[in-house]
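Repro:
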Amino acid sequence: MKKTILSIVTIASLIFTGCSLSDDDNVTIVEGEVTAENLAGNLTSDLTLKSGVTHNLTGALLVKDGATLTIEAGTTINALAGGTDVYILIEKGAKIIADGTASSPIKFTSSAVVQKAGDWGGIILNGKAPLSRQTGSESNAATEVKNSILFGGSDATDNSGILNYVILEYTGARIDDESEHNGLTLNGVGSGTTITNIAILNGDDDGIEFFGGTVNATNILVVNAKDDMFDFTQGYVGTCTNLYGVRENGYTAVTSDPRGIEADGNLDGNSPSDINQANFTINGVTIINNADGVEMSDGIKIRRGATATITSAYLMLGSGAKFGDVIDLQDSKSDANDATKITAVANVANSLDITDIKNTVSGGATINLTAALTGGADKSVFAWTGYSF
């Protein structure tokens, strides 16, 4: 659907049932003992990264069960531009404590002279919280980027640590069309974990993706994610508050179907008969596509057995930008207990077609529309990032 003038939609309430090395010729993956200066390999004991010291992520850093990686406020970690070979993985039973402040955030960035999306693989947290699964099966799954390492379990309150006032830049390295690193990947992460005040900038795949788990997330800013901004799958049942996603003009996608929100009840729709499918809540979300001539496949897509409750959503198009569909609920969950319901308010003067809703689920959605100009996430809470809105 083509729209060529500034368009805005505010959805006041919705309730409805996812490379190789860098191109740089001189990239070298460093191996050896894990130290604060050379972060790569298996971390089996506690390690603290102090501010004011140079810290280099030179390969895959695996924080093993029982170990804690602590990062002081104000610390910067420079990741070698090694694509899929450079990332941080917090395994089940391990923790990361990256507790920054608004005045002294923690930054993970690329060490390349010319930084670009996909320079490194981002942060992966693996927890022990439940996942969608077949009846009688264990709640375990393989980590997408390293299949030998499992995540998931039965501890809904599992604690993988703290990420607070953290910036992640130039992440999201791609393995192939089916597997990739996101900016921040949360695998079976439990509600004892703190995820708040996060900025994910210029990543090559999803900004943030939840694979099952129960963790709650607050104040998440995603800018120029080349695939989905916010992705939920494999039985995620937490609550997200104040999500803000934006594409700037000049943005280019790397997939055929990038979305603002994408939600699957089970993993990629491969197990439609799973129990414990995704059923999550979002309180306040803004999705903005300012990329002239670039289509966002869907503003919001809920599918494959997922159930979501979304309140105060605000969708906006800049001049020349597009949504394939504003909202797509074609195969979302709609049984007697989880029937889709939408109450929406829209700035109808700006011609965004709020009636552009695909809704062919059994029973159908209840949709009420009125005109309004405001809603969505509170961008003022992201002042600490220095991002210019």
